[in-house]
Write a structure and sequence with these properties.
This protein is an alpha+beta fold and 124 residues long. 19% of the residues lie in helices and 40% in strands. Strands 1, 2, 3, 4, 5, 6 and 7 form a 7-stranded antiparallel beta sheet that branches. The termini are far apart.
Length: 124
């Protein structure tokens, strides 16, 4: 029962974080401009993900069609350390988040994510 509740909460958050404002006119969505390729490991082996420029843009596993939503970063790149947490994330969802290792060839450290299994393509 708790796994079902967890899946529902994570899916609800994923939809809330990625929901765009409703519009009276349907517009064609621009294709994501993936500029970063990285490897994360959340405890089940390395996963290659792509993401856009924004620090909190979804990390997309194109092979398995999974989306990971970053809520915190602790990485070092070129002698600089970036420690940041997304504001407004409810405490309950923080408890459901996973801390994963992260490397993209330049930055190395950890990223804390909410995983949205089985959602397929994401929307911004």
């Amino acid at each position: 029962m708790s796994k079902l509740l967890t899946a529902v909460l994570v899916s609800t958050l994923a939809l809330a974080l990625s929901a765009a404002p409703a519009s009276a006119h349907k517009r064609e969505r621009p294709q994501p401009n993936y500029v970063y390729t990285a490897t994360i490991d959340c405890g089940r082996g390395p996963v290659t993900v792509v993401s856009e420029e924004d620090l909190y843009a979804p990390l997309v596993d194109q092979k398995r069609h999974r989306v990971y939503y970053p809520i915190a970063w602790d990485v070092t790149a070129g002698g600089m350390t970036i420690k940041d947490e997304k504001p407004g994330v409810p405490r309950l969802l923080k408890r459901l988040a996973k801390t994963c290792s992260y490397t993209d060839g330049v930055a190395t450290g950890t990223v804390t994510v909410l995983a949205a299994p089985g959602l397929g393509r994401h929307s911004n």
